[in-house]
Structures are given as structure tokens and as C-alpha cells.
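S1.2 Input.
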Amino acid sequence: MQSLDLLKRSDRILIALGVCAFALAISRAEPSHWAPASNNHLLNSLLMRAFTTIFGISNLSVRAPALIGAAIYIAACFGLCRILSHRALIRIPLFICLIFNPLVFDFFVAARGYSLAIAFLTLALFLTLRPRPPANRHWTAGLGPSLCLALSFTANFSFAIVNVIAGVLLFAWTYRQRNAPRAKRGPLLLAWIVPGVVVLILLPSWTVSQWPAGQLWYGAASLSETFAGLAEASTFQPNPHLANPFVYASLHRIRYVLVPLVCLLALACVTINAPRRNRSMRIVYLLVAMGCLTAAGHYLAFKLFGVLLPKERSAIFFVPIATLAIGAAAAIPAFSALQKNVRPLLIAAMFLVAGYYLFCFRLTYFRDWQYLSDVDKVYSVVNRYIHLNRGRDIPANWRYVSSLNFYRTQSGSTSLPEFVAVKDGPALSQRTARLCPLLSIRPPIRRPPKLDAPLSQRGNRCGRGGD
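S1.3 Output.
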């Protein structure tokens, strides 16, 4: 048995050495993934480098890290729904609200670090809240959550405060649940600290130490702007291809009522059962404390250091925390007549929100980069135009340059020069401006098309725009 254990340990060492060797081989190329910049989501960049090195550049290889994050997030949410309630009437709408929230769903496929960051944060919650056998070793209770929270921060630095708050609260939860004896408290604390510190030293330490001023420019100036932006992004927007005109108009009318309605009903359930102590109530208190302390930490950083508050995608971590808190509130057992009346209303509101989210399902564009949804088609047109006219001057609006150059690299074209970014205005040549409005004008704000309008009045698709 000892030889088998040694063999297992040696296998782990060999696997770790192999991973390190592969990482070093990848890093022999230009190591731009370590660059200290707000648009460099470190863990996502490292994995993108690995996948594009192995499989070449394609839409799938650059989005593979985000898809992995989506798979981890969905699995963790599935486990959390099973933990919070055994009733299908609660599990089903809660799972849909966690997965199909338009803000969250966008970043399942966007080549950014938000998917991995929110996935590891949710996985840390699952690993902490799941039931554990009493004979389980104390140090294993903190190993997984510690690694997950460190990887969440590595995936996106805007998760720094929520990861610290989550680490403290989840450690306190584990410490109380396991009721560790005095001799085991030290190993439990070390298990929560050491793995995460090792990950932070190996991955983001240099990037954070070299971080320049002025990078954190995207954010909100007040907490009301933060939460209003989250509500706006979480209800954007019903898909006119899925909802008929009557349903589409009805969904738009209730759009700004859904989030306050569910939150008020959940607050009512918690207030009614405040004197009682059960597992669902303790989970609600844990999640509410996590959200409130995170908001307070960001507000303190804003007041003391001028760091803008998180906004929309940089505040995406509030979405699963709030949604899970609402689901836990719905799972509180009904002990009073008032609770028996309020709880069905909350579950019905959750089903209403879940149905709304399903009608928001879309595959052709992201909310933040809607103006880029047709860039692949535009690149084909530009490429053909340049070759037919032997043109060399390819200036473009700066919003489209990186996407156009991606398709240029993916195509393997050597005759087509790189696209050059210019500012808004008349700086583009008239020849290029005539080619397509996409290359010369600022992207317009698009509103949902009128379904009864003729096709000729629904706008030119050349100026519309995904990631």
C-alpha cells in the first residue's frame, strides 16, 4: 500500500512537471499574457495561449477558456441547486435564473476572463456548502475553496474584494460547521491560506506588482449606478425572434419590475423567518453578508483611493450571490400562515424571471459588443475589395480593428496588411469610407426592430455589430 501511495505521489509530481514544461514551452513565444493591463485577464490569456498554440487560431480555440469556465459554472450551479432545496419547483427556476441570466450568459462565450472568474467563485461556494462526511480530513475542507478563489482572482482582478470577503466568510462557515478541535485549527487555517498564496505567487504576482496607474477606468460613481446597471444588463433584452409581438411588448412592460419584485418577496420571506435558525436561513445570511461586505469594500476603496465602483460586467459576481440568496430564501420551510402565502408568490416570481430570461436567449451578438456581430462578413467584403482594387490603405474605426485583424490572422492572409486604427471623424480616406460605413463611423445605438416594419426599413446590417 505504501508503494502504491508513493507511486501516486510520483505520478502527481510528474504531471505537475509536465504541466510546467508545457507552460514554459508556450512562454517561449512573446509573453504578452503577463502584461499588466486591464484588458489582460491573466488566466484567460494563459489558457488562450495554450489552446491557440496547440490547435491554432480559431473562434473555438480563443473562446475555449470561457467555455471551460461556463462548464464549471453550470456544474457548480447544478450542485448548489441540489444543496439549497430538494423541491423541483425551486430547483428549476433557480437553475434557469443562474444560467440564463443575459449578463452571465454573454460571458460564457466571450473571450474574456469573467466566465472563469465567476465559475471558480461559484465552485468555491459549492465546495464549502456541500455536505461532508465527518471522517473527512480537516485540511481537505479548505484546499479546494482556497485554490478556486485564487484562480478566480487570477482570471479577473476586479474580483479581488469579493474573493477576499468570500474567503473569510467561507472559512468561518467551515470552521463552525466542522467544529474542529484546537489541535486541528492550525491545519484548517493553513489549508485555507497556503494553496491560494502559492497560486497567487506563481501566476499573478508579477502582473499585480507591475500594475500601472490609470488602468481601472471602467466603473460606476455610486452604488445606485452599480446595481441599476446590473438590473439593466440582467434584463437585456427579449429576442423578437422568440417572442411574438404581443409577448415581446408584454415582456418590455414588465422588464423593470422583475428584479425589484423578486428581491422584495425574498426580503419578506427572510424577515418573516428571521427569528428561526435553520440551514436555509444560515445560507441566506452568509450570501447576504458576502454581497453587503463586498459592496462596502468597493465603496471604501472608491472613497479612499478613488477606484471606481464595479459596473455591469465588472460587477457580475453580484448576480450568482444575489440569485442564490433568493433561492435559499425560497427554500426556507414555511412555519407560519404568512410564510405559506408569501413563499408561493416568491416561487411564482422566480418562474416569471426564468421565463423572461429564456425569451432573452440569443446567439448572434453580445450586449457590450453588439456593433461587432457582423465583422466576419465585413472582413470578407473588405478582403475581396482590397484584392480586386489592389488597395493598401485599410484604416478602420478603432472599435473594429482588433476583430478585423483577428479574422485576418485566422485566414492566414499574407498579402493583406494589418488594419490601422484611426479616431472618429473624417480621417479615413473617401475610398475606404465608401466601402462600408462600418469602417468609418461610430457604431450607432441599435434599438429592437419593429416586427411589423418591412425588411427595407430594418436597417443596413453592414453597420451592425459581437465580440
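S1.4 Remarks. Confidence is low (pLDDT under 50) at residues 1-7, 425-467.
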